[in-house]
Specification:
Helix content: 25-40%
Number of helices: 16
Number of domains: 2
Distance between the termini: 14 Å
Structural class: alpha+beta
CATH superfamily of the largest domain: Aminohydrolase, N-terminal nucleophile (Ntn) domain
CATH class of the largest domain: Alpha Beta
CATH topology of the largest domain: Glutamine Phosphoribosylpyrophosphate, subunit 1, domain 1
Bound molecules: adenosine monophosphate
CATH architecture of the largest domain: 4-Layer Sandwich
Number of strands: 23
Radius of gyration: 22 Å
Strand content: 15-25%
């Protein structure tokens, strides 16, 4: 059940700002790349109640106009779902109504002990409205409020200490907003001040869009309580080990975001430079696969002196190929999304840079298209190591069977995609690009920073 659901997602929250709900709509628009299946906003109505609006679809479809009214605080969520992701019931925020006061939650990440917790809660009589692991936060908070009372830092601390895995979590009550990050710090979450109020978002680009400049990360294991009295920081766990998801830098996050002090574009560009150092190549042109291969392609071109050309043009109006349900649809999806520029390509030796190979669909189709457009040679260079292991923390890499590099060697993958040569960035090169030694690299190395409970049995 829950182990089939993978939620990359993005969260955004505002406290103490006029027009909070509409500011959340704007913030979510800048997090749209993190999830396109559905979105929602929960906001205070200014009279002590919370209002929830959510639906399937893009932010511009669900909220075609400014969200008018509401009080001075709100949270929102954009959802990424794989095939059959549960419909509107799984779209967040989730609203939990209680006599002693309602609360809403918005969560990015995946919990590794969700099945165990859901089973325990169900045995105690808890009812779930969705198949999303994110509902567990509400269920645990609700059972902690059995005797009455309201959400508080001690209650949140107790609840978060029972949960393992990845969460950047927002909890909204009538009079406070809580921003929490799991103790491993898998997913990003930034916070900043706006006038007399505060704004929290999955990526700094969304805060910038809301007009916030002085931005800091919520730290691993931290709970920030934001209320009319300002912010109050506490840590639910002392055992904070930092392991930000490497795929955030490689693929998910927008290049204009800064995560834990490192700009995403700068990270990718550096990885392209190191990729050249590790895997040089004689070619006439460097070609980046839009969008997430472009920054690394700039780095590869700068380091090698091989000119960079825009030999692939992306159609911005075609949805992402990765989440198409069948392989045939995915193959067509690549053709729909990317077009080669024949006049640049004909007779040229190309070094093509992409950020990752998952199933191999994109690269295989791309190589075929570039050959048809007259490329003399195609050298694929990938700015991350081979993906060999599933992710249990919220990246949509669910099963080892889907990962081409889990069963084939680099040479075999190269033959499958039809490239003249293929090489990947090393794990050490990736760390070097980030200037750090504490990323979560589990999908490359198989070394998981937490217990993974029963997940290994499913793959
Ligand atoms: P594939 O065609 O299956 O090899 O997927 C590779 C392409 O998907 C790359 O061009 C990446 O930009 C993109 N990608 C990598 N990881 C993910 C992910 N977790 N979710 C969606 N797209 C991804």
């Amino acid at each position: 059940m829950t182990s089939q659901l993978h939620e990359e997602c993005g969260v955004f929250g505002v406290f103490g700002v006029e027009g909070a709900a509409d500011l959340v709509r704007i913030g979510l628009t800048f997090l749209q790349h993190r999830g396109q299946e559905g979105c929602g906003i929960a906001y205070t109505d200014g009279k002590g109640e919370l209002v929830l609006r959510k639906d399937q679809g893009l932010v511009s479809r669900v909220f075609p106009e400014a969200v008018r009214g509401g009080g001075r605080s709100a949270i929102g969520h954009v959802r990424y779902g794989t095939t059959g992701g549960g419909g509107v019931d799984n779209v967040q925020p989730f609203l939990f109504c209680r006599r002693s006061g309602s609360f809403a939650t918005a969560h990015n990440g995946n919990l590794v002990n969700a099945d165990e917790l859901m089973q325990a809660l169900s045995t105690q009589g808890a009812l779930f409205h969705s198949s999303s692991d994110s509902e567990i936060f509400g269920a645990l908070l609700g059972s902690g409020l059995k005797g009455g009372g309201t959400i508080s830092v001690p209650l949140l601390s107790r609840v978060l200490n029972r949960i393992d895995g990845a969460f950047s979590l927002l909890v909204l009550t009538d009079n406070a907003l809580y921003a929490c990050r799991d103790k491993t710090g898998f997913r990003p979450l930034s916070i900043g001040q706006l006038g007399g109020g505060y704004v929290v978002g999955s990526e700094s680009c969304s805060l910038e869009a809301a007009g916030v400049h002085s931005i800091r990360d919520v730290r691993p294991g931290e709970i920030v309580r934001i209320s009319a009295d300002g912010t109050e920081s506490s840590f639910y766990s002392a055992a904070a080990q930092c392991a930000m998801c490497a795929m955030e830098y490689i693929y998910f996050a927008r290049p204009d975001s800064d995560i834990e002090g490192r700009n995403v574009h700068a990270f990718r560009k550096e990885s392209g430079k190191i990729l050249y150092r590790e895997n040089p190549c004689e070619a006439d042109l460097v070609v980046g696969v839009p969008d997430s291969g472009l920054s690394a392609a700039i780095g590869y071109s700068e380091a090698s002196g091989i000119p960079l050309e825009m030999a692939l043009v992306k159609n911005a109006y075609v949805a992402r190929t990765f989440i198409q349900p069948t392989q045939e649809m995915r193959l067509n999806g690549v053709r729909m999304k990317l077009s080669p520029v024949r006049s640049l390509i004909e007779g040229k030796r190309l070094v093509v840079i992409d950020d990752s190979i998952v199933r191999g669909t994109t690269s295989r189709q791309l190589v075929r298209m570039l050959r048809e457009a007259g490329a003399a040679q195609i050298h694929m260079r990938i700015s991350s190591p081979p993906l060999r292991n599933p992710c249990y923390y919220g990246v949509d890499i669910s099963s080892r069977k889907e990962l081409i590099s889990a069963s084939l060697t680099v040479e075999e993958v190269g033959r499958y995609i039809g490239a003249d040569t293929l090489s990947f960035l090393s794990e050490a090169g990736l760390m070097e690009a980030g200037g750090r030694s504490d990323l979560c690299m589990a999908c490359f190395s198989g070394r998981y920073p937490t217990d993974i409970y029963s997940h290994e049995d499913n793959n």
